[in-house]
Every structure is written in C-alpha cells, then in structure tokens.
Amino acid sequence: MEANWVPLRLSLQVTVSATLLVLFTGVPLGWLLARKRFPGREALGAIAVLPLVLPPTVLGYYLLVLLGAQSPLGQWLASIGFPLVFTWRGAVIAAAIASFPLMVESARAGFEGVDPRLEGVARTLGRSEFAIFWRVTLPLAWRNIVAGTALTFARALGDFGVTLMVAGNIPGRTQTMALYIYDLVQANRQDEANRMVLIITALTVMLLVVARRLTRRAV
C-alpha cells in the first residue's frame, strides 16, 4: 500500500512553526527569570514549567477553555477569521505549549551560567542593555539555547495528547504523524505503523545528533 506522506508534511509544518514560536517567547522569558528579581518571579517560573508536569488531557482542556468557541478569545478569533480549535494552527499552539518549558528551562540555565561580571564590563564600556544581550549574554548562552531548540522540536514533533484535545484528529487537516501512527495501530496496519515510527524516530535522532555536534563545536 502506498505510504501517506500528508501527516509527515503536516507534522513538519506544525513542528517548525511551534519551535519558532517557542524560541521567540521562551528565550526572553528564560532571560527574565535568570536575570531579574521581581514579585511573583517564582510563581511565573512555576507556571512556565507547568505544561511539563500536567497530564496532556488537562493541558488540552485548559487550552480548549481558553480558545474554544465558548470563550471570549475564541469567539473573537473566529470573528476575524482566525479560529484555532480543530485547525492546524491549533496544533501549533498545542505543540508550542507542550514544549515551552524545555526552552524556558534550557535558556534560563544558559543565562544563569553567564558571568554577570562580563556584562558589567560591557556596561562600563558604554554598551546598551540591548547590545549587551546580543553581543555578550546570548553568545555565551548559545549552547543551552541550541539544546533547548532541539528538545523543543523533538517534543513538538511527537506531541499527541494536547494536539488531539485542541486540534482533533482530522485527516489532511490536523492529523500529525503521532495521531496517524495511533490510527494505523488501531486499524491493525502494523507494517505502515512500523514504517512511520522508524521515520519519526530517525528524524528525531538526527536532529539531536546535529544539535549535540553544534554545541560541542561551540565549546
């Protein structure tokens, strides 16, 4: 039987989008938690990690309540023609939320490992905070951010529970590889399931190997 490559294409589309979303939100939050002291900092850190420990069904339920057709946000998104629930965009949000803690914690650890004295030297030279972040802090925390990006991509690629709750399992629209493999197993199409499992495993392993090599070169 001919292989169905639509779930793989959709998975890569969702995963790349989710990884970029997490990268541009998780890194600033990781820096904020590592470098700033403010009321509620620990609570914010705990909330950021919460998707990692909550059951996927619970996390998916929260997202449905927030983004569903009965919520104010969901109704507003639908009114502007940008609904999220049961769309591939909803799958992006689901994968991003599920993998968000991996990026935040990796970035936070990287920024905490940067010697503040180096940033202080840059300040004495008249550098702005923005310039210090881009020229000093970020390059020194680069290894952790690369590792966090790789883990985020791998986690988003394999998300099942949250995606199922928020985006559903609609072939050709929201059915990612993880959901497709589940359907193949349920239909007792073992050979196809094995093929898809090998593909997604190989993709994940290659990504992690590349990320590890990149971080080693940065030493």
TrEMBL record:
CDD domains to which the protein is assigned, alphabetical: TM_PBP2
Leader peptide range in chain numbering: none
SUPFAM superfamilies reported in the protein's UniProt record: MetI-like (SSF161098)
PROSITE patterns in alphabetical order: ABC_TM1
Residue ranges of every copy of the ABC transmembrane type-1 domain listed in the record: 8-211
Domain of life: Bacteria
GO CC annotation, single: plasma membrane
Transcription regulation found in the keyword field: no
Membrane topology category: Multi-pass membrane protein
Transmembrane segments: 12-34, 43-64, 76-98, 196-214
Subcellular location: Cell membrane
Keywords for this protein: Cell membrane, Membrane, Molybdenum, Transmembrane, Transmembrane helix, Transport
Function: Part of the binding-protein-dependent transport system for molybdenum; probably responsible for the translocation of the substrate across the membrane.
Family in the record: Belongs to the binding-protein-dependent transport system permease family. CysTW subfamily.
Name used for this protein in its record: Molybdenum transport system permease
Originating species: Caldilinea aerophila
